[in-house]
Write a structure and sequence with these properties.
The chain has 100 residues and is mostly beta strands. Strand 4 and strand 5 (54-57) form a beta hairpin. Helix content is 0%, strand content 37%.
Length: 100
């Protein structure tokens, strides 16, 4: 069974700061043959394998590759409003793009 939504958790080099972005499956496949997922803005794009391996794909110029990214599968019945708590919560709002 393929998963239609993930939370991508971006961690900085210290491991202290996390940004969480919700991505949904597209009809596309990446160079590794795995589904490509994107956030609602289309800025964050990632190929995610069936083992949860993440390869962030550049969607434009001047992007730095993400070094520490984890994918957490989301249940099919959750909505984006239920994800990540409030904007001040420890996981973030689930709507912010990772900081550069």
């Amino acid at each position: 069974m393929s998963i239609s939504r993930y939370e991508l958790v971006f961690t900085d080099v210290t491991g202290a700061t996390q940004d969480v972005v919700v991505v949904e499956r597209t009809l596309y496949k990446g160079s590794g043959g795995h589904p490509v997922y994107t956030d609602p803005t289309g800025i964050i794009r990632a190929e995610i394998s069936d083992r949860g391996e993440v390869r962030v794909m550049p969607s434009g110029g001047h992007q730095d590759p993400a070094h520490a990214v984890r994918a957490r599968a989301l249940p099919e019945n959750d909505t984006e409003d239920d994800i990540g708590g409030d904007a001040e919560g420890p996981a973030g709002s689930g709507r912010a793009a990772p900081s550069a």
